[in-house]
Amino acid sequence: MKKWLIRCLTVLAMVCLIPGIVLKAAAETVPVYCAFCGIREEREVRRYEKYDSAYHKVCVDACQNCHKDGNVTHLQVHTGGTQGPTCTEGKICEDCGAEYDIPGHAWGEWNPNGDGTHTRICTNPNCDAKEENVPCGGDPNATCITKGKCTTCKGQYDGGHDLVHHEAKAATCTEIGWKAYDTCSRSGCNYTTYREIPALKHDFVYHQAKPATCKEIGWDAYKTCSRCDYNTYAEVPALNHDLVPHEAKAATCTKPGWNAYDTCSRCDHTTYAELPALNHDYQAVTVDPTCETDGYTVFTCSRCKDSYTADPTDKLGHQFGAWSPNGTGAQSADCLRQGCAHTGSTDCRKFTFRTAEGETLTFCPVCGQAENAAQLEKIEAATAWTISGSLSAEDVTARTNGEYLSVAFETAGSLTQPTGLVRLALPAGLLEGKTLVRIAPDGTQTEMPFEAKNGKLIFTLDFANSGLPVMLFRLLPQTAAL
Question: Span of the secretion signal (predicted)?
Answer without folding.
Answer: 1-24
